[in-house]
């Protein structure tokens, strides 16, 4: 076994020990296939009001512009599939936001992994990314062999489905690279396309972000357009419809991350409870949650929209 293989095996072993579901490694290079796709997606206005998506176009496609001397992109997945869900007939939040904010939890694990690499191998420079920088994480995950991008554009892993977060560690160390995941195992299935309440899922593994319920309830800061009345199917923060109907998610297993356990009251709250939500209850239920991104005012706006 050569040194690059040894280093790669060490990293994957430590990633598993830290609780990551999968770990794949790709060469830090220009994402040639993604460039025209991203350009077209932006030109079509599928990013809606997410103007930040227009920024750092070159950095999104080349990790060497994000991390000086970058040689490897380590892609990692982290399970968030819950053992229990909200009660039937209530307003819904996306499963990923049940517990504490994943950004902090996963970033801490990435920092620990980088430290372990330094302890074992010597001085290795790099940066940790969790869904908050210009990194095309799904492209890198597929390139590193973790899975394929489904018709809903999310990454799917054969044995795990798609209820997981993606994160990256971009480092200046050359490693043994995994083969890209080239096979699309969605076949002729169109369940996610057919089930999308707002017809946001387009052909060719593309999502019109400006129609996506997650965008409308989280990213959009203005009023939700009246044309979407009656289409949100009681989703007040995010949406899981395309994942809930995906046949691959029959393989999803509940996570073992205690910090993702929801506030007890969250799962039991009824529509009336949500309609009577106060700032105080919001702060208590979503103390360290990603839902805080919408603020109390944003969640109230969404609930008012659903009541129409």
Automatic annotation (TrEMBL):
Keyword terms, alphabetized: 4Fe-4S, Cobalamin, Cobalt, Cytoplasm, Iron, Iron-sulfur, Metal-binding, Oxidoreductase, Queuosine biosynthesis, tRNA processing
Domain 4Fe-4S ferredoxin-type: 177-206
UniProt record, GO biological process: tRNA queuosine(34) biosynthetic process
Subcellular location per the Swiss-Prot or TrEMBL entry: Cytoplasm
UniProt: cob(II)alamin binding residues: 60, 131, 155, 166, 214, 239-240
Record flagged with keyword Membrane: no
Binding residues annotated for [4Fe-4S] cluster 1, in chain numbering: 186, 189, 192, 246
Pathway: tRNA modification; tRNA-queuosine biosynthesis
InterPro entries named in the record: 4Fe4S_Fe-S-bd (IPR017896), 4Fe4S_Fe_S_CS (IPR017900), QueG (IPR004453), QueG_DUF1730 (IPR013542)
Record's cofactor remark: Binds 2 [4Fe-4S] clusters per monomer.
Active site: 131
Binding site for tRNA: 221
Pfam families: Fer4_16, QueG_DUF1730
Catalytic function, reaction form: epoxyqueuosine(34) in tRNA + AH2 = queuosine(34) in tRNA + A + H2O
Coiled coil: none
Signal sequence residues: none
HAMAP family per the UniProt record, alphabetical: QueG
Quaternary context: Monomer.
Protein name: Epoxyqueuosine reductase
Highest classification ranks of the organism: Bacteria, Pseudomonadati, Bacteroidota, Flavobacteriia, Flavobacteriales
């Amino acid at each position: 076994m050569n040194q690059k293989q040894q280093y790669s095996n060490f990293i994957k072993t430590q990633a598993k020990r830290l609780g990551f579901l999968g770990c794949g490694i790709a060469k830090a290079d220009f994402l040639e296939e993604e460039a025209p796709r991203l350009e077209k997606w932006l030109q079509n206005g599928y990013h809606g009001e997410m103007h930040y998506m227009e920024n750092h176009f070159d950095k999104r496609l080349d990790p060497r512009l994000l991390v000086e001397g970058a040689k490897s992109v380590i892609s990692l997945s982290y399970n968030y599939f819950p053992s229990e869900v909200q009660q039937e007939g209530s307003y819904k939040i996306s499963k990923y936001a049940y517990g504490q904010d994943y950004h902090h939890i996963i970033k801490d694990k990435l920092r620990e992994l980088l430290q372990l690499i330094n302890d074992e191998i010597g001085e290795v420079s790099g940066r940790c990314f969790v869904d908050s920088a210009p990194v095309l994480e799904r492209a890198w995950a597929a390139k590193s062999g973790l899975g394929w991008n489904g018709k809903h554009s999310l990454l799917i892993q054969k044995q795990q489905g798609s209820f997981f977060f993606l994160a990256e560690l971009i480092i200046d160390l050359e490693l043994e690279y995994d083969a890209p995941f080239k096979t699309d195992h969605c076949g002729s299935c169109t369940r996610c396309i057919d089930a999308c309440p707002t017809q946001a899922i387009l052909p060719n593994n593309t999502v019109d972000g400006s129609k996506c319920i997650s965008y409308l309830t989280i990213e959009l800061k203005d009023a939700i357009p009246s044309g979407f009345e009656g289409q949100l199917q009681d989703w007040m923060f995010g949406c899981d419809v395309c994942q809930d109907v995906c046949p691959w998610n029959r393989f999803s297993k509940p996570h073992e991350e205690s910090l993702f356990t929801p506030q007890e009251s969250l799962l039991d709250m009824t529509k009336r409870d949500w309609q009577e939500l106060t700032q105080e209850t919001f702060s208590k239920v979503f103390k360290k949650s990603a839902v805080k991104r919408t603020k109390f005012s944003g969640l109230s706006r969404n609930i008012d929209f659903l009541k129409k």
